[in-house]
Amino acid sequence: MSEYKAWFRCINEDCGETYRLDEIVYRCKKCNNLLEVVHDMNELKKKTPGEWKKIFDYRYRRQVWPYGSSVWGKKEWVCPMVDDDNIVSMYEGATNLFWAERFGEQQGVDDLWLKMCGNSHTGSFKDLGMTVLVSVVKHMRNNNMDIPAVACASTGDTSAALSAYCAAAGIPAIVFLPKDRVSIAQLVQPISNGALVLSIDTDFDGCMEMVQRITSDHNIYLANSINSLRIEGQKTISIELCQQFDWDVPDWIIIPGGNLGNVSALGNGFLMMYELGLIDRLPRIVCAQAEHANPLYLSYLKDFKEFHPVRAKKTLANAIQIGNPVSVNKAINILKRFDGIVEQASEQELADAADMVDRTGTFNCPHTGVALAAFLKLNRKKVFKPKDKIVIISTAHGLKFVEFKIGYHKGELKGIVPEYANMPLELPDDYNAVKDAVFSNIPD
């Protein structure tokens, strides 16, 4: 039994009810607020900041189970109650921190980075949280708890992560998808992994309402980010970022936001490092929303004094096409603590931004396009200082969104004028025609 402890606690400070991590509970039973995972910080403080850094650095990407995972390499800070035999891991995390030197130079920014979270097992950052959640479910099932399946509502990436990790664990997975609103690459992942896929004629918010009803009436376990176990895995992005910068802290983090669990996860990781002395300052956080699904942005314009869900419109950034985010209160708390900013991006802005950075060597999803567009807008407003270290979180791999990519270059995206379109030149089998095409199109 580990000496390190963690538990669920109600986010309402006036309530403070607590629950075990292996209890099937998603909201406080007393006041119905969301829960958060808290750790026995006094026990964690028995190690010095230097000792924790040494431990994390020694484990990083090593083939010692389960520490080769960048999530489970921080096990004491994430979920210490799960035995190693119950951990379901696919070597998640440790993704490339890409110095966007050429793109930054184009924008007059020297220290710009892209955290390529899509370079993961199922192609998105959702793997970081799903390894924790599915491991806890495996732990509970092996302790004779009646959990017949795990379920999620998804616009693609969550369903891919859930189905893969459940397949590896031998646990049935159920996926609620909005009909005709996910890419083929996203749809094929849960199908291939053997999940029960329900394509429902509604949007994500409708799927979310349905899955919460199903899981509240039965023992099917809920895997959406309303479940704070997901946040525990995702918070390791913050720790890994600092680790990759030799424990330096970026000045800015820009992250796309839909259901907003990733915003609170990002903040929680930094707050934990700050309290335990591994870092001595906090970054500022920017949450980027699509203009067609922007309830947090609208709340930010009113200093977060009120929040109203919206009816999300269709957006190219379909994974964040969410009008009623379940983690909004957590996200607002984090943004207030981190002197945060919320920015929005139009469909034209996100499409152009995604392709603009692709031309400097990356391959990003449309949701990362939202974050990139937010960066461009804030940079034009001179929000950033010349020497600021800026990290943009790339949430998923571009190969999951080939319809978006090819649609942009073909000019087939409705309402989008593709400024950076680049299609193959169709030529006859003629040397002179090929030569003329080559030399007339090489940039000076």
Number of strands: 13
Mean pLDDT: 95
Spatial arrangement of strands, main beta sheet: 4-5-13-10-11-12
Strand content: 5-15%
N-end to C-end Cα span: 66 Å
Level-2 CATH architecture of the domain at 97-122 and 230-410: 3-Layer(aba) Sandwich
Helix content: 25-40%
Structural class: alpha/beta
Radius of gyration: 22 Å
Question: What is the C-level CATH assignment of the domain at 97-122 and 230-410?
Answer: Alpha Beta
Shape label: globular
Low-confidence stretches: none
User: Which oligomeric form is depicted?
Assistant: single chain
CATH topology category name of the domain at 97-122 and 230-410: Rossmann fold
Description:
It is a single chain. It contains 17 helices and 13 strands. It is an alpha/beta fold and 444 residues long. The protein has a domain at 97-122 and 230-410: Rossmann fold, CATH 3.40.50. Helix 5 (126-142) crosses helix 9 and helix 9 packs across helix 11.
